[in-house]
Design goal:
- The chain is of the alpha+beta class and 306 residues long.
- The protein folds into three domains: 88 residues, Pseudouridine synthase (2-Layer Sandwich), CATH 3.30.2350.10; 133 residues, 2-Layer Sandwich (Pseudouridine synthase); 68 residues, Archaeosine Trna-guanine Transglycosylase, Chain: A, domain 4 (Roll).
- The protein contains eight helices and 19 strands.
- Strand 2 and strand 3 form a beta hairpin.
- The longest helix is centred in the first third of the chain and has 12 residues.
- The two termini are 33 Å apart.
């Protein structure tokens, strides 16, 4: 079948053993979309929220991916692996019987806030154009620099030795595998990530998802696909008349001389037409009291969020 221009977002519950790109390829096969991409990478081990952007929605990935993410993680104490998860080879073993929920809770406090974290060697990050996991498989060892990441909260759900279950709320770039590995060391033992489920990615929740196998079983994607602005609802919005719509689509700044401007400098808002079509995003310039086009759709999309 001929590839189609399809614009929107599908929120997939990623199955285990699939890479994020595996899911993208499956969605392109199911929908026959010309262009698709995923929001945030989930390891093959992980399941849960994986937004897939189609067509013009791919232009807003940077806005989707910067938001907070929530995970349910199962960590196994007593064993460290080379990949920091259950799919790797065991490289260290240690005792965990001495650990209590009290000292685990106290130790986890040091992982909250703005912290420095070293990503795992088995990751999709690049060094001189080569993925780190490829270097790791080739036996190449490199010094991976620490990175600043944000952890909002870590809450213990249960402690049934050797398994610790936690819920984590964090920002962009946080590796749960590295957290599991580092936590084990801080507790005087070893640990690795045994299960991971993402339950929230920005504005998208696990309740919004559809399992990939359900999409593959029936052609229902066109009934549940949402418009790109679904992932931008945390932003304010405004509507423009036909004249301003034309200016916006031609890349010209918009001024509202007769209206109060309550926007902050460089604030970004969604822009809609009088016909309730999503036109794109505009950024406010306080120096000129105008809205400058930030992202402009080549084809306006009728939206229920206007």
């Amino acid at each position: 079948m001929t590839k189609q221009d399809i614009d929107g977002i599908l929120i997939i519950d990623k199955p285990p053993e699939f890479t994020s790109m595996n899911v993208v390829r499956a969605i392109k096969r199911i929908t026959h979309a010309k262009k698709a991409g995923h929001v945030g990478t989930l390891d093959p081990l992980a399941t849960g929220v994986l937004p897939i952007c189609l067509g013009q929605a791919t232009r807003f990935v940077d806005y989707y991916v910067d938001d907070r993410k929530n995970y349910l993680a199962e960590i196994r104490l007593g064993f460290a692996t080379d990949t920091y998860d259950s799919q790797g080879e065991t490289i260290h073993q240690g005792k965990y019987e001495h650990l209590s929920i009290e000292n685990i809770t106290k130790t986890m406090l040091s992982f909250e806030g703005v912290i420095l974290q070293r990503p795992p060697m088995f990751s999709a990050l690049k060094r001189d154009g080569t993925r780190l996991y490829k270097l790791a498989r080739a036996g190449v060892e490199i010094d991976i620099p620490l990175r600043s990441v944000v952890v909002h909260t870590i809450t213990i759900e249960s402690w049934n030795p050797p398994f610790l279950n936690v819920e984590i709320s964090c920002g962009k770039g946080f590796y749960v595998r590295s957290f599991a590995h580092d936590l084990g060391l801080e507790l005087g033992s070893y640990a690795h990530l045994s299960q991971l489920r993402r339950i929230k990615s920005g504005i998208f929740n696990i309740e919004d998802t559809i399992p990939l196998d359900e999409l593959e079983a029936g052609n229902t994607w066109n009934e549940i696909i949402d418009t790109p602005d679904r992932g931008l609802l945390q932003m304010k919005s405004f509507n423009v008349n036909t004249l301003l719509e034309s200016k916006f689509q031609n890349g010209q700044a918009l001024s509202f001389l007769n209206e109060p401007l309550d926007a902050a400098h460089l604030e970004v808002r969604r822009v809609y037409s009088e016909e309730r079509c999503f036109l794109g995003l505009a950024k406010f310039d306080r120096s000129t009291n105008s809205w400058k086009p930030e992202k402009v759709l080549t084809k306006p999309l009728l939206s229920k969020y206007a």
